[in-house]
Amino acid sequence: xxxxxxxxxxxLAVACGDKAPATAAPTAPxxxxxxxxxxxxxxxxxxxxxxxxxxxxxxxxxxxGGKIVERLVDAGARVRxxxxxxxxxxxxARLTAAQAEASRALAAADLKRSQDLKARNxxxxxxxxxxxxxAKAAEAQAQLAKNQAAYTTLTxxxxxxxxxxxxxxxxxxxxxxxxxxxxRDGEREVSIAxxxxxxxxxxxxxxxxxxxxxxxxxxSYRGVLRELSPVADPATRTFAARVSIVDADAAxxxxxxxxxxxxxxGGDKVVVPLAAILQQGKQAAVWxxxxxxxxxxxxxxxxxxxxxxxxxxxGLNPGERIVAAGxxxxxxxxxxxxxxxxxx
Length: 344
Fold this sequence. Notes:
rod-shaped, disordered N terminus, four-stranded antiparallel β-sheet, alpha+beta, Elongation Factor Tu (Ef-tu), domain 3, 40% strand, conserved putative lor/sdh protein from methanococcus maripaludis s2 fold, 21 strands, six-stranded antiparallel barrel, 21% helix
């Protein structure tokens, strides 16, 4: 009975063994978004940070030396032309002026007596000339001493704002030593430093864009490069420059930090989407799509990354099609399917 059952099942087993295994269905090409590379003229810019300053600044100081006894203004104070700012101890200057005035009066009286004597021929003309010369010298000395006494009060040379206080009461200052820094009313500028590698590209009179760090977002001002130092700073190796703010308003305050941008022609460059860039170690690459829709990885030279994409310095030619999205899922030689909205 067992043998008969085996014989009956044998044809069925043979039939099952002859059946070929099922093959896997071919996978569809991956759908990718592409772009056709084109060259465009890019406008680049050099950007520098600086400080808002007054076009005209001065450092008022006493014309005579002495001890400061009174400071009349603080930093940030607005002053008018001729307004007193500080005073020195006037004691010595007043005594000197009084002594000079006494000498002047004595010389004047001596001259008057000599004139009377000359009228009666009691003295020679030479004697009278000597008295006249002495009187003139005493007059000049008295006026000089009077001026020196007046110089013990320091006044503002122009209307403006006290930007800094450089000396305090009790301090002894020398003639000409700066006591304040005064920013005059009027034009506002940005003081910047340009590296020696870029100074050749900047010319006096060049237009610029000025933006305040603390100002309204997106607001900018027109600027003009007014001054460029011909000599580099020995410590920083940068060139001092001043950029005038043409349309400055009340929001442009002294001491604010500002960014100055100078536009320059970047030439024709290839710009590709950031998603198209593959980073293979230190080498960047993109997938180039051939006419038969196969992809090949090609190294490219990325000059910089910007908001609009990656700017290439070489590796691609205008008119070539590259993968703009989905680049990280591909392999070399793979066939892809191009999205309809990226075929143009």
